[in-house]
Structures are given as C-alpha cells and as structure tokens.
Amino acid sequence: MRKVKEFIIEKLILICGLASIFFVGLIFLFLLKEGLSVFNIVTPLDFLFGKSWYPISDPAQLGILPLILGSLLVTLGAAVISIPIGIGCAIYIAEIAPARIKEVLKAGIELLAAIPSVVLGFIGMITLVPFVKNCFHLPTGLTALSGSIMLAFMAMPTIVSIAEDALYSVPKTYKEGALALGATHWQTIWRVMLPAASSGLLAAIMLGIGRVIGETMAVMMITGNAAVMPNTILEPIRTLTATIAAEMGEAVVGSEHYFALFAIGIVLFIISFAINVTADLFLHRKQ
Amino acid sequence: MRNPYRTQKIAFSLLFLATLLIVVPVGLIVIVIIFKGFPAINWQFLSDIPRQGMRSGGIFPAIIGTLYLVAGAIIFALPIGLLAAIYLSEYSKENVLNRIIRLAIINLSGVPSVVYGLFGLALFVVFFKFGASILAGSLTLGIMILPVIITTSREALESVPDSFREVSLSLGVSKWQTIRHIVLPNAIPGILTGTILGLGRAAGETAPILFTVAAFYLPRLPKSIFDQAMALPYHLYVISTQVPNVDEKIRYGTALVLLALVLFMNLVAIIIRYQFRRRKKW
Amino acid sequence: MVKIFTIKDLNIWFGSAHALKDVSMDIYVNEILSIIGPSNSGKTTFLRMLNRLNDLNHNCKMEGNVKFEEEDIKNIEVELLRKRVGMVFALPLALPLSIFDNVAYGVRMHGKVKKQSLKDIVEKSLQEAYLWDEVKDRLNESAFKLSGGQQQRLCIARTLAVEPEVILFDEPCSGLDPISTAKVEEAMVILKQNYTIVLVTNNVKQAARVGDRTAFFLNGELIELNKTENIFTAPKDKRTDGYISGKFG
Predict the structure, then answer these.
(1) For C3-244, CATH number?
(2) pLDDT at A287
C-alpha cells in the first residue's frame, strides 16, 4: 500500500520536474501557432525589415523595423547608463562597503527589484518626462531618452546582484595574493578581481539587457509610442513589447493584426531565449 | 609616477557615487509615493467602487481582483513548483535532462512578461475558451512565477544538509518519507520566502493580465472565476494614461496601495528569511 | 560460528577510482569486527556497502557477491536491509528534532505504533546506549542541546530503536573526548551480546580494546584478517605490522 502511494508520488514529482520544459515548449508552440499565419500575408524579410507599421490601414503594412530599432535604441541607451553604474555599485557593495551598510544597500536594491514596473512608469511620467522635456526644450518629454533612463534603472537590480555574486565568488586567495604583493585595494580590484569575475560580469550585463528588452509597462508609459523610424534619442519611439501591449486589446482575434502581434511575440521570445542561453553559458563557464 | 592611493581614492568615490545614483532615487520614489499617496488613503478609498469614470470613489474592486489573481496563481504554481524543486534537488542526476530542465527554467524566467500575456491569450482565453477571466489570468501569472518558486524552493531544499538524508535512509526509512519528514520541514522557511516573493511578483505585474483578465472599468466584484476583474496594476495604468483629468491624489493613492501590497509581501519574506537564518541549528 | 555476511570477490569503483579490490571475508553473528587502516584505504566504503548506502552515490559501481543471511543484498529490498543493518556515523548527527523524536523517528516511519509501546522502545534504546539517566527528564528538549558524546549515544539509541541485527559504526569516536569515547566503547561491548558489530576506526588502540577480530585494509585491499590478539601480537603481513606499530598511517 505504502509502496503504491510512494510510486505514484514519485511519478508525480517527475512529471512536475518536467513541467518547466513543457511550459517553455507550450509557450513557443502557441506563439508559433498564432504568429506564423502572418507570413501568409508578408514575407519574413518584409516583416522584419519593412519600414512601415500600419496594421489597421487597408492593406495593412506590417513592417516591424521601426519597432525593432525603437527597442534597440532604448536598450542601447539603457545599457550605456546602467552598465557602468550597475557594475560600479556591485563593486562598491562587494568590496568596499562596510558590512552594515552593505546589508542596507542590498535591501535597497531588492526594494527596487520589487517595485512593480507600472508604478515606476507612473513615477517616470510624472517626474522624468517633464524633466527631459524642460532640459532639452522639447515639444514632449515622452522620448527614447526618458525610456532609456527608466529602463536603466530597472535593469540595475539584475546587474548589481549578479555582478556582486560574480565578484563574491572570486577565490579569496587571488585577492590576498595581490594585496600581499603590495598592490592597493583598487589595483587589486581593477587588475585582479574584475578580470577574474569577467564571465559573471558579462552574464550580469546580458541578463540586465534581457530584462530591458522584455520590459513593457514602464516603457509604454514614457516613450511616446510613435511607431516611426527613430532618428534621434530625443524623439518618441515605440518598442516591440509596447506595441503588443498597446494594440492587442483592439486587435480582433484571427485578424492579420492579431497574427502580426503574435509574430512580434515570436521575435521577443527568440531574443530572450538567445540572451538567457548565452548568459547561462557565461555563468557556468568558470566551473 | 601617479600616486596609486590618489587613484584609489578617486575610483572609490566614483563607485560610491554610482551606488548613490541607484539607492537615492529608490528612496525618493518610495518616499514621494508615500507622502503624496497617503492623503488619498481613507476607508472610502479602500472600500468603495470607482465612481464618475474612475475620477472619484475607491479602488475596492481592483484590490479584490488582484487578491483573487494572486491567490489563483499561487494555488496553481505552488504545488507544481514545489514538486519540480523536489525533483531537481532530490531525484535528478547530473545529466542532459537535468541540464535541459535548468535551461527551461532560466528561459521561463527570462520570457518577457508581455509574451506571457500573449501566451495566456492564445492558450487559456482563445484555445480553452475560458474568455478573459480570473481563471485565465491566474493561470498565466501562475506559469510566470513558476521559475521563482522552483528556484527558491530548490535552494531551500538543497540547503538541508545531506547528512540528515543519510541518517534517515540508514534507518531504513524510504526516500519519500525522508523527503516528507526530514527534508521538507527543514526547508519550509525558504520555500515560504520563495512563495511570497512569487506572490509579490504576481501582484505587481500588468502585462500578463492585460489581455487575459483585466477589465478597464468594472464597478462590481467578480462572481466566479470565469468573470473578468479589475486589478490594481492595470487600474493604475488606466488612470495614469487612459483617463484624462484624474485627480493626482487618486493616482498616487492607487500607486501607494499597490506598492504597499508588494512591499509588504517582500518584507514578510525578508523577515522569514532573517528569522530562519538566526534560528538555523546546523 | 554463524555467518551473517558472506562477501566474495567484492570490487567497488567510484568513477575511475578503484576503491575496493577483490575483497572476500565473512562476518559472524555477535562478534565485534574492527576494521583498521589508513585513510582512503576503503574502510568506510566497505562499511557503507554493507547496508547499500553507497547506492546514494551515482558514480559508484559494485561487482561481486555479498550475502546477508544467505540472500544477495541486491535482492533484498533496500529499506528492509537498512533497517536490519543499522549505521552510526562518524559525526554525531542528531536530527533537528527533540531527543524523544530522534529515537522514535525510525520506529514511527516504519509503521503505526501505540504511544505507550513507542515510549517503551525509546526508553529501552536509550538505556542500551547508556544515555537514559542523562536525558530522562528532558526528552522533549532539542537534541542539539546535548553534548557531542551524548549526541553520539543518542544516534546509537536511534539506530537501536529500529531493532537491527547488525550495527555499523563508522569511526564513531573520531569527534569525541576520551571520556565520551570510553562510554561509547562500553556500550559497544555490551551491545555485542545482542547485535553483530562492525567497527571502522582510525584508532588502532580502540580496535585492540573492543574487537574480537580485526581486519586491516590498505589501498582498497584486505591485507589481513584475524583474531584481534593475533593481529596485534603476531601479524603475518609486514604492512600490518608497520601500520599498527605506527611506522605509517
């Protein structure tokens, strides 16, 4: 009797162990199921590199290049801001901060990670957007720049915590060896710790970028949502994620527009898949 | 020759500045929301339905909707996540399958939240014909928080010393009994922490519920799991961007309630973790 | 003398490391068999083989024939084998439970027992392990409050409670002070009347004090097995002599 019960439980455990594979597969399958139909209307090349996104005009123009460039532009901006600050903060927490302050700082970073993106978007709308508008004398503050700043902020917790882990897992002997040779603490960090932790730091950056590309609500609320080819960072743009979030509500199930939004989902899924697999390779290379 | 100590001083100052650039805004955001949102909070705001096109009244249906969604997500995700964590920590071997599962979990946690929304729409709303409903939204959120629960639970299970398992097995106790009576009880604080963090995440997400459950304006409480519902994060989005002329007080008040809910869950998780570390006996 | 374990041509590998090489021996009922040898000589691997704890290591491969009471141990249900062949580990590994629950744990897991008979089993086991008098007034306290020596005797009591036939001791006194060691040894000698004991020890003198027979392992091979007094007074192999006289180890 007990044997039977345990046999059933152990089979159940195995099934649940496989659940994550099942769900990843299911997500991809359903994105494909709904999204691939769009390629009856446009070729994959026209879809990816078409310069006009007018999904409800007749005939619909389904080129997502402006959206891809929009995503790339804000991501690039966010990366430029968040990488130095995030890695710097990680070094400070891992190496310099006294134990007490370290705990406070880590709690602060965790707090940031916990704030819902819609709340950050709301705050960004009220504070950051007018600030950017006044600073650069723009007609609107809803620009790629505002989005980049906000997203940089949202990428910080990921970058800081993974980078800190990477620095922390550098063997103590490396550091002690360098210090014993008379190097200053900073020289030790710069010449020994950072190179030793490099693959972990790369993973931190990649996962931070992954977070930025996938971010939806905040970016939709503060980038202005203009689906045009971006020229400068001071103009409104629209990202892949925001397009889905903003338009799916109005798209009729089974319409071209609906399929096209799912096809954007496929693109996002593949991007995040690639980023996460690469980051994982970096993280486990050192072992 | 440059003075290495001066270089160090400058470098450390810059690192400190970088840290301030993150931590100070976080503090400011929280403080601003608390101060500006607090005047809006009163019993009516928390217990009334939205009135006059959401320009006055309260946010009660949104609070309830979010609680339903979070509860539904956890009912779905906790059993699956916990069993998956048990599989990974207690049963799996270092092999290809294990590696694929790990990759799947990493990807599941990396999929953009709006893609979860698409998936929920395609599978639950359209394919299973649940319609936009609490059920569809909860399941979508549940799958989204699965990796959080699996990862934290697994860490908690693996932190139980192997010697406990050996002792139990050496007494002729079966593997499942060992897990059930020795490993699980000692991992519960960690599992709880992960679960609550997952809850907080589910409560704050907007994109996955956009097309699966969220109602723009529904001034009544949902009656069944097949009803649409309002939810706090979506409500905040709506009154911030879709409805003109909403009193700023109401926006800040809604943001404060949402933030308080999420931070409260995180706080509970942190306290449990802290208590557990202090009490840990091995 | 009745054989309880019959071991023939036993080989064990961990990955590519050959941990035990062609070991053959018998273990008799109600004896104390001491196993000595330097570290990494395969003593503990041999001990853990007897109740198949090596199975927990996925890299472990075993060949040969090991019989427990005339039955191949591979054919005995592993839980039953471990219940009949108990183990006391090197470190005092109390479970994070109360003193009472530690002893009662195995019994409870093996099936429903009446409250009173459970109490009786716990008391009897603690008495056999020489611990009862020290803990009888605080059975509900956490086992971690006991001293190292007390915890180790608690572990013995916990093993006794499931009524094994053989008890495997894996360097049970390695972490203990001389007084606690003496108490554990005393317990072992008395336990011999009802149980078969296999004792792995790094402490040659301990083997001399308590063992009926002593086996000497070196680099995974069984070098010599004989009555304890013979091993210590007239070892046949030079290496045995070298080890017990302290020339290496």
Answers:
(1) 3.40.50.300
(2) 47
Mean pLDDT of chain B: 90
Average pLDDT over residues A29-49: 91
* Domain boundary assignment for chain C: 3-244
**Residue C22 belongs to what H/E stretch?**
strand C17-28
Half-sphere exposure of B274 (CA within 13 A, CB side): 8
Distance (Å, whole) CA A137 – CA A134: 5
Taking the C-alpha atoms of residue C229 and residue A55, their distance in angstroms, rounded to an integer, is 95
Contact state of B87 with A17 under an 8 Å Cβ cutoff? yes
pTM for the model stands at 0.90
pLDDT value at B117 more than 90:
yes
Lowest mean pLDDT across B229-238, C77-86, C108-117: C108-117
% of chain A exceeding 70 in pLDDT: 99
Express each pLDDT in A54-110 by its tens digit: 888 778 888 899 999 999 999 999 999 999 999 999 999 999 999 899 988 988 898
A–B CB contacts, 8 A cutoff, strictly below:
266
- Cβ neighbours of C89 in B, within 8 Å: 163, 166-167, 170
Question: φ, ψ for residue A161 (rounded to 5)?
Answer: -70, -40
Q: How far apart are CA B160 and CA B182, in angstroms?
A: 9
**Domain boundaries, given as residue ranges, for chain A:** 49-285
Position B1 pLDDT exceeds 80: no
Q: What is the mean pLDDT of chain A?
A: 91
From the list B122, B177, B200, which residue is nearest A114 (CB)?
A: B200
Average pLDDT over residues C178-196: 88
Say if the Cβ atoms of C93 and B166 lie within 8 Å.
Answer: yes
Domains of chain B listed by start with CATH number? 54-279 (1.10.3720.10)
Q: Distance between CA atoms of B26 and B14, rounded to whole angstroms?
A: 19
pLDDT score at B280: 64
**C-beta atoms of B8 and A92 within 8 A:** no
Q: What pLDDT score was predicted for residue B282?
A: 58
Give B147's Cβ-side CA count (13 Å radius): 18
CATH code for residues A49-285: 1.10.3720.10
CA distance linking residue A221 with residue A121, whole number of Å:
6
Inter-chain residue contact B170 with C51, CB threshold 8 Å: yes
Predicted confidence (pLDDT) at residue A216 exceeds the cutoff of 60: yes
Interchain CB distance below 8 Å, C158 and B166: no
Confidence of residue A286 (pLDDT cuts 50, 70, 90): low
What's the confidence (pLDDT) of residue C119? 94
Rounded Cα–Cα distance for residues A103 and B14 (Å): 20
The pLDDT score that the predictor gives to residue C249 is 65
Please report all neighbours of B, defined by 3+ CB atom pairs within 8 A: A, C
Query: Could you tell me which chain A residue has the CA closest to the CA of B106?
Result: A276
Tell me how far apart the terminal alpha carbons of chain B are, to the nearest angstrom. Answer: 53
* Residue A284, CB-side half-sphere exposure with 13 Å CA sphere: 9
**pLDDT of C158 above 90:** yes
* Most C-contacting residue of B171, B178, B186 (CB-CB within 10 A), to test interface: B171
Three-state DSSP state, B67: helix
Task: Decide if A238 contacts A105 (C-beta within 8 A).
Answer: no
DSSP per residue, chain A: -HHHHHHHHHHHHHHHHTHHHHHHHHHHHHHHHHHGGGGGTS-HHHHHH-S-EETTSSS-EE--HHHHHHHHHHHHHHHHHHHHHHHHHHHIIIIIS-HHHHHHHHHHHHHHHHS-HHHHHHHIIIIIHHHHHHHHT-S-S-SHHHHHHHHHHHHHHHHHHHHHHHHHTS-HHHHHHHHHTT--HHHHIIIIIHHHTHHHHHHHHHHHHHHHHH--HHHHHHSB---S---STTS-B--HHHHHHHHTTTSPTTSHHHHHHHHHHHHHHHHHHHHHHHHHHHHHH--
